[in-house]
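Q: Structure tokens for this one, please.
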Amino acid sequence: MIDIHTHILPDLDDGPADMDTSVGMGLIAAAEGFTAIISTSHSEQAAIEGHERLSMRLDDVRDAWSKAGLNIRLELGMEIFLRPNTLDQLKAGHLWALAGSRYLLVELPLQPWPTYADDTLYGLQLAGYVPVLAHPERYTAIQSDPGKMYELAERGILGQVTAAAVIGEHGTSIKKCSEMLLRHNLVQFIATDAHSTGRRHPRIAEARAYAETMVGPELAADMVQGNPARILAHEAISLDPQPVAPRKSFFGSLFSR
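A: Here is the predicted structure, written as tokens:
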């Protein structure tokens, strides 16, 4: 399996506090069956460090993990906090894509949905990038109207649901939203968004098994193997989003009886 959303660099943003914890994350990831991981530190801190410095820090993690007997491919990316100037920052080299591809892992404020988001995402697509929306199940706009993610998917925007959310570790409402997104083919990835060996750990096997009960083993495998491998190979990822029935309002429910 391949994890496209992790925070494994020690002493950076809210990732592991030290290298020992990072190695511990690697040991957990190996036991889960991961063969490759993309490091996606938050863009604010990563941009300050710069691509060259982050690459060197990832080399240090590679060395430490290798000494611990881990054989996991590590690639550099970042989790980009979407802003109106994101495309300009990409062109300037201050931000970068996942593993040298054209796929961008992007996140938004959890609430409300930014007025600039749709136009900025479209601009990224016009420039040849493929946005992957990180943890859409956490955004209140999508929780209240999953059809919002369908609109984005129809435009070619991908989605990544978090493993812990799928199995209910982030609460009932987020779990229900993640299930809706999975059942309607509105997300193409399950990733860990791991930060440490503690509560936010790099575990995914249970979430994959649960996803299989909703979408079947083939699609579940694509979310943790096939599609992440396509990012690493710089290949296209197909979408087959299914529309979500709009939720009835309280008064609409009364009149439909």
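A few notes: The chain is about 45% helix and 15% strand. The longest strand covers residues 2-6.
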